[in-house]
Design brief:
Blueprint lengths: L4 E7 L4 H26 L4 H12 L3 H46 L4 H16 L11 H5 L12 H12 L2 E4 L12 E5 L5 E6 L10 E7 L5 H8 L3 E6 L5 E6 L3 E8 L2 E9 L13 E6 L3 E7 L5 E8 L7 H22 L3 E4 L4 H5 L6 H8 L3 H15 L3 E4 L4 H13 L3 H13 L10 E5 L5 E5 L9 H21 L12 H4 L24 H4 L3
Parallel strand pairs: 10-13, 13-14
Antiparallel strand pairs: 1-9, 2-8, 3-4, 4-5, 6-7, 8-9, 10-11, 11-12, 15-16
Length: 533
């Protein structure tokens, strides 16, 4: 299994000559990358294209390879997402068509109907599945069609911004068999903790020198990791297929990306992470995580699957910038990993597919749609995996099917916790491989206004997997919620619980945990038989 790659950044202090050199390098790299994309789409031979580009752009073979690898990464990212996007489009088209049919019957000629039809046409165009790559960004490209609203005096001003956006970065590919992990850009450590970067310029910039030296680069984080990667280089004696002895270099690859923003140039150094000793064990229990659009719900269990603790971490991402969202998610993930390491327990989360959630946007109310749109599940999972790897915390991924239903029916009322915390509890127990059989005969599930819906559970066929039972429960739960909403139950004060419902362990004190709840062991006994009759 490949180790993760961590990236660290630093702001560069450059004079005018240094800025001009990096600007010129970025222009060459940008033109080469765009020309390479056009040549490959037209079906050209990769080797012939490379030979032509070396002469045409005046670059080294390694610099040409950097542009190729960067372009291949962008294309691979699109290709990887394309099947998921196509499946998502099909589902959203189906739902959009259903919504349009309803609007045509209830509100013909309305603005909502018009917008839904436009949305349907856009989705059908996207379903064509053509590879699209806009260098510079679609948002900036479309800004030319309304210059005044986007802050441009004329088209010339927009074109200047467009060109700068297309040529604002370049990538320098590293390799473990090269000096200091990179042939084109080499970092030289200094005693004060900073680095000197020696960047080889393309041949066409010979008038600015062969190399550009950037002194005193300080990485706020990751300096030790970069220094360790630079110091890992070794020379080893190897034998070729013909029997000739050769000396080879081996070490750690260090790749660099130079990026220009409003304040100037930054450099990003990427190194392969070193393995860390595991500090958690499943024999201590687990911490289940349920990721939601506006918060993280967490539930801690012991090794038998009994609930030990529950808590919630708010993530108000809606309306935040990308950097603000990253900061909020990063802080939450670091804190969760710290808790998991202190308690010696792995973190369990769902391997979630967001296609269905995004398809639900077509029928969701505006507030719910906004929350789902800003739902940063992948980013949260990526941050959590990175933080856990650094601190030796095990991450267990489980299938997400029916965890929300199990949490709502089995645990929410009985444990005095929220539905989301119940889902986190179900996730933790699934990560430990514990039972998921029903714990009640009649479901009492809380609603958003503090009320509840009640329905009888279907008969379980023990010849089938328990998930087939929970599929039937989910159908009944959806029907119960729909009937509750139609009756106006979400707008009324919650009705009092019936005596027999209280006997099932239901309670209105939602934030509190019922007393002695953890003394009931759910993993061993047949809990249905223990219920009051």
């Amino acid at each position: 299994m490949s180790r993760p790659v961590f990236t660290y950044q630093a702001r560069l202090a450059l004079d005018k000559a240094g800025c001009d050199a990096l600007d010129a390098y970025a222009r060459i790299h940008g033109r080469m990358e765009r020309s390479l994309f056009a040549a490959l789409r037209s079906g050209g031979d990769a080797n012939k294209i490379k030979r032509d580009f070396l002469l045409r752009f005046g670059v080294s073979a390694r610099q040409c390879n950097s542009a190729r690898v960067e372009l291949q990464g962008k294309i691979a990212s699109i290709r990887e997402r394309q099947p998921e996007l196509l499946a998502e489009c099909k589902e959203r088209i189906r739902k959009a068509a259903r919504v349009i049919a309803k609007f045509e019957a209830k509100a013909p000629g309305s603005n909502k109907l018009h917008q839904k039809k436009r949305r349907l046409r856009n989705l059908e165009e996207r379903r064509a599945g053509l590879l699209r790559l806009c260098f510079g960004g679609r948002k900036l490209f479309r800004a030319q069609f309304d210059l005044e609203a986007n802050g441009y005096a004329d088209h010339k001003a927009w074109r200047e911004a467009w060109r700068r956006a297309r040529d604002n970065q370049f990538f320098v590919l590293g390799s473990r068999d090269e000096t200091a992990g990179n042939q084109t850009c080499q970092a030289i450590p200094r005693d004060d903790g900073t680095f000197d970067l020696k960047l080889r310029l393309p041949h066409t910039l010979a008038d600015q020198g062969k190399h550009l030296t950037i002194a005193g680069v300080r990485f706020a984080y990751g300096g030790d990791a970069i220094r360790a990667a630079l110091g890992s280089g070794r020379r080893i004696l190897s034998t070729t297929a013909s029997g000739r002895s050769v000396v080879k270099r081996t070490g750690a690859a260090v790749s660099y990306r130079f990026l220009r923003d409003e304040k100037g140039w930054r450099v990003f150094a990427s190194v392969e992470a070193q393995p860390v000793e595991l500090t958690t064990t499943r024999s201590s229990g687990a911490i289940g995580l349920d990721i939601n659009p506006d918060h993280l719900a967490l539930s801690e269990t012991d090794r038998f699957g009994n609930q030990v603790d529950v808590w919630r971490t708010d993530l108000p991402l809606y309306g935040k910038s990308a950097e603000q969202a990253k900061a909020l998610i990063g802080d939450a993930c670091v804190e969760l990993v710290r808790i998991a390491r202190e308690r010696g327990k792995p973190i369990v989360l769902e391997r979630l597919d967001l296609r269905q959630k995004k398809a639900d946007l077509e029928t969701a109310d505006p507030r719910r749609a906004r929350l789902l749109s800003s739902f940063a599940y992948r980013k949260t999972a990526a941050f959590l995996n990175a933080a856990a790897f650094r601190h030796g915390v095990e991450i267990i991924e489980v299938e997400p099917v029916y965890t929300s239903v199990i949490g709502a029916v089995n645990f929410a009322r009985r444990q005095g916790i929220s539905v989301h915390q119940g889902a986190a509890y179900a996730v933790a127990r699934r990560g430990l491989g514990l039972s998921e059989r029903p714990a009640v005969r009649e479901a009492v599930v809380p609603t958003r206004n503090g009320g509840h819906v009640t329905f009888a559970l279907p008969v379980r066929n023990r010849a089938k997997h328990v998930w087939s039972f929970w599929a039937g429960v989910r159908t009944r739960l959806k029907a119960a919620h729909a009937a509750h909403a139609r009756s106006g139950g979400l707008r009324k004060p919650p009705a009092p619980l019936l005596p027999e419902t209280r006997a099932l362990g239901a309670t209105w004190t939602l934030p509190a945990q019922s007393r002695h709840a953890n003394r009931r062991q759910h993993c061993s006994a047949g809990v249905v038989e223990d219920l009051p009759r």
